[in-house]
Design brief:
The chain is of the alpha+beta class. It has six helices and nine strands, in the order ββαααβββαβαββαβ. It binds coenzyme A. Coenzyme A binds next to helix 2, strand 5, helix 4 and helix 5.
Length: 178
């Protein structure tokens, strides 16, 4: 049973994921190349069971997936203590540069707002131009830090309009039920 529909975008469905999607998320990460994994986790990760278990171990965390013909081709996660959240996301290489990264990140912000969270932050590798571009478009003000990463943070209520604008600009339509 697929999770609630959040948005549609040219052939893709963007849905909230749940524990029943744990295997699909694990398979998604296992299918990604090493550089993408490194950019996503800012470290080397080979086994994803613990990560997926942690994702669904708290009601304050949430995950959003983009599906093409039922297959997970992009995924984003919000880890939080129900007040302050951190977003991270990845898109399968064959589906990049179509706006999916931006749309998933924007939906992570909207879902955080819907859940009443206050702040959103993100960490990106300094060479990850696409991710930093997405963070800046969404108002996170990504700034370089020591150790080769960029960090950004913002009040979710303040950046919600930017998330809505980004969805429109990338051709995604929110579900009427959302
Ligand atoms: C980062 C990532 C999610 C981007 O996904 P995507 O679907 O290609 O993103 P979008 O299509 O929304 O592109 C976002 C912007 O980056 C630009 N962009 C995309 N790839 C780029 C690249 N390799 N170099 C420079 N800019 C790039 C796009 O043109 C777009 O800019 P625009 O909105 O001004 O037109 C994807 O590359 C990925 O999964 N990387 C591995 C995991 C990762 O890095 N996660 C992010 C850290 S949590």
């Amino acid at each position: 049973m697929p999770g609630p529909l959040l948005a549609r975008m040219s052939g893709y469905e963007l849905r909230l994921l749940g524990p029943e999607d744990a295997q699909a998320i694990k398979y998604f990460y296992e299918s990604l190349d090493q550089l993408s994994i490194y950019y996503r986790f800012l470290g080397i990760v080979k086994y994803f069971d613990a990560h997926v278990a942690r994702l669904f171990s708290s009601q304050c965390n949430y995950a959003i997936g983009a599906l093409a013909s039922g297959a997970l081709i992009a995924e984003g996660e919000g880890f939080s203590d129900c007040r302050d959240a951190e977003l991270a996301f990845a898109v399968m290489p064959d589906y990049r540069r179509r706006g999916l990264g931006t749309v998933i990140a924007a939906l992570l912000i909207l879902e955080a707002y819907r859940r009443g969270m206050r702040t959103m932050e993100a960490y990106m590798h300094a060479e990850n131009k696409a991710a930093i571009r997405i963070g800046n478009r969404l108002g996170l003000h990504m700034c370089p830090e020591e150790g080769g990463t960029y960090h950004g943070r913002a009040e979710i209520a303040a950046i919600r309009p930017l998330a809505l604008k980004a969805l429109e600009e990338k051709g995604a339509a929110l579900a009427v039920t959302y």
